[in-house]
Design a protein that fits this description.
The chain is of the alpha+beta class and 256 residues long. Among the domains are: 58 residues; 80 residues, 2-Layer Sandwich (TolA/TonB C-terminal domain). 25% of the residues lie in helices and 15% in strands. The strands form three sheets. A three-stranded antiparallel sheet has the order 3-2-7. Strands 1-4 form a two-stranded antiparallel ribbon. The protein starts with 28 loop residues before the first helix and ends with a strand. The relative contact order is 0.09. About 4% of the residues have low confidence.
Length: 256
């Protein structure tokens, strides 16, 4: 086949050196063309691999972006305060006094009106002698009594005081003796114990004239009254004289 053959492909492998036709084995034009294209493909693949590796290396060596600085504050639970209430808010209460005070107009300041000189009153100040005369002490003669009369207030020291009367004494009564209380059988069987507070009237001879129960278990009150009546006191003294007074005396009952 000559070079001027119109059927010959220009870029195909030349057959001018072919010893014989048809060609077989390594001398076949297609086999020889395949080696050329395989070599070009390997070269292009190698170049692409080198380019991709270079791009990855450059990208991996770049400096990473600086992180954004954030401020962290540690707060104790005691500093958080009271959490907001999840309950339904209540209707605000109206303070009536403040509302009335705001509604009432404030008092106006009085403005003095000028008057004529002849109508004006000039105040006078009392002298020392006039003040001493006005504040002079009142004597019995001023009350219509004689010159030698005196005002006498009588106090009945022999009257029996009531439990609510206050009696001033120089010496308080002192208990000398008392019989032990008798524990009621009903209170013992019921397991009742406690203290009965009594108020006793100490006579002038030191004996108990009257007894009042102030507080205590009901089952023990009668026994406490009987025990309080057996008490003997050294009477109270007023102006070095014995008088009657009321004193508080507790009586305790305990089960052994």
């Amino acid at each position: 086949m000559s070079a001027k053959d119109p059927l010959h492909i220009p870029w195909a492998f030349s057959l001018t050196q072919a010893p014989r036709l048809p060609l077989t084995g390594e001398q076949h034009p297609l086999r020889r063309e395949s080696w050329k294209w395989v070599s070009w493909g390997n070269l292009v693949t190698l170049l692409l691999s080198i380019a991709l590796f270079a791009g990855w290396y450059v990208w991996s060596q770049r400096e990473p972006a600086q992180p954004v600085a954030r401020q962290i504050r540690i707060v104790r639970y005691t500093e958080l305060g009271v959490p907001p209430s999840i309950a339904k808010p209540s209707v605000p209460q109206i303070k009536i006094q403040e509302a009335v005070a705001q509604a009432v107009a404030p008092p106006s300041i009085g403005i003095p009106e000028p008057v004529a000189d002849e109508l004006a009153q000039s105040p006078t100040i009392a002298t020392v002698a006039q003040m001493a005369e006005a504040l002079a002490p009142i004597t019995m003669s001023d009350l219509g009594g004689g010159a030698g009369d005196s005002l006498v207030v009588e106090i009945d020291v022999d009257r029996t005081p009531s439990p609510t009367d206050f009696v001033a004494v120089e010496e308080e009564p002192v208990r000398i003796s008392i019989d032990p209380p008798v524990y009621p059988e009903m209170a013992q069987s019921a397991g009742v114990e406690g203290t009965v507070l009594t108020r006793v009237l100490v006579a002038k001879d030191g004996k108990v004239r009257n007894v009042m129960v102030i507080d205590g278990p009901d089952l023990l009150k009668d026994a406490a009254i009987a025990c309080a009546k057996t008490a003997v006191f050294r009477p109270a003294l007023q102006h070095h004289r014995p008088i009657e007074v009321w004193v508080m005396m507790p009586i305790t009952f305990r089960l052994h």
